[in-house]
Amino acid sequence: MTREGLNEHLRAHAARMESLLRDALDARAMPSGFRESMAYSLLGGGKFLRSALCLECCRMLAGDIQMAGRAACAIEMIHSYSLI
Predict the structure, then answer these.
(1) Strand, helix or coil at 14?
(2) Rounded to whole angstroms, what are the CA distances from 27 to 10, 30, 42, 56?
(3) Quick one: CA torsion of 19, 35, 42, 62, rounded to 10 degrees?
(4) Residue 31 has what DSSP assignment?
(5) What does the alpha-carbon distance between residue 31 and residue 43 come to, in Å, rounded to a whole number?
(6) What is the pLDDT of residue 62?
(7) How many C-alpha atoms does 62 have within 13 Å on its Cβ side?
(8) Other CB atoms closer than 10 Å to residue 52's CB: what's the count?
(9) Higher-pLDDT residue of 31, 74
(10) Residue 78: what pLDDT?
(11) Predicted local confidence at residue 64, as pLDDT
(12) Which of 47, 48, 61, 69 could disulfide-link 17, Cβ–Cβ 3.0 to 4.6 Å?
């Protein structure tokens, strides 16, 4: 894969992860101020490399991508938490 191809793949992954993370935040009952703070931290334009590795490993091993998506969200949430 070329560098441009990899960059495009990572951009598509980042967009997919932002959607998954938004869905995960919307599925939980919490005060709106708390939700906004979490969204600001989680969706601040990151590259989501950790979750990309999680999903690519799942793909290579023919795993359940739905379950891996939840794991990828958890990885990004833990990473974001560790930075705060």
Answers:
(1) helix
(2) 25, 9, 15, 25
(3) -40
(4) -
(5) 18
(6) 95
(7) 0
(8) 19
(9) 74
(10) 93
(11) 92
(12) 48
Largest CA distance in the chain: 44
Residues in CB range of 79: below 8 A, 6 or more apart: 50
CA distances from 40 to 24, 34, 66, 67 (A): 14, 10, 24, 25
CA 39 from chain center: how many Å? 12
Question: What would the pLDDT profile of 15-69 be if each residue is shown by its tens digit?
Answer: 899 999 999 888 878 887 888 888 888 887 778 899 999 999 999 999 998 899 9
Return the residue matching tokens 């974001």.
80
**Cβ neighbours of 79 (radius 10 Å):** 15
Length of the chain: 84
* pTM, to two decimals: 0.82
Judge contact between 15 and 70, C-beta under 8 A. no
